[in-house]
């Protein structure tokens, strides 16, 4: 685990403390939560995922994918309106 020091404006800290309290978290826990959530959004998809999506897009471009209507899917799965 790495420790970092943050320098934030008092108004920013106050706003974060209010939100942390609203979520029943400590300020430290809330800041860690925010950092983790943001890092997840910045992650690059895995090579396996990008390969799978590239393959799917190639199949789409080559008209190798068959699409079903919603009615066909519902009938196939025993779902009625």
Explain the overall architecture:
The chain is mostly helical and 81 residues long. It is built from 4 helices and no strands. The protein has helices spanning 10-22, 27-42, 47-61, 70-76. Helix 1 (10-22) crosses helix 2. The radius of gyration is 23 Å and the shape is elongated. The mean pLDDT is 92.
Describe the protein's topology:
Layout: H1 10-22, H2 27-42, H3 47-61, H4 70-76
Helix pairs in contact: 1-2
Record keyword descriptors for this entry.
single chain; 81 residues; mainly alpha; 63% helix
Report the C-alpha radius of gyration, rounded.
23 Å
Model regions low in confidence, pLDDT < 50 over at least 5 residues: none
Quick one: how many beta strands?
A: 0
The residue-averaged pLDDT reads 92
Strand portion: under 5%
| Sheet having the most strands | none
Distance between the termini: 53 Å
Instruction: Please report the number of helical segments.
Output: 4
Helix/strand structural class = mainly alpha
- What oligomeric state best describes the polypeptide chains here? single chain
Residue share in helix: 55-70%
Coarse morphology: elongated
Topology pattern, helix = H, strand = E? HHHH
């Amino acid at each position: 685990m790495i420790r970092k020091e943050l320098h934030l404006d008092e108004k920013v800290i106050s706003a974060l403390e209010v939100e942390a309290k609203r979520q029943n978290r400590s300020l430290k826990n809330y800041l860690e939560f925010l950092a983790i959530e943001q890092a997840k959004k910045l992650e690059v998809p895995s090579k396996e995922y990008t390969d799978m999506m590239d393959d799917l897009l190639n199949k789409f471009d080559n008209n190798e994918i068959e699409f079903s209507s919603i009615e066909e899917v519902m009938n196939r799965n025993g779902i009625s309106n």
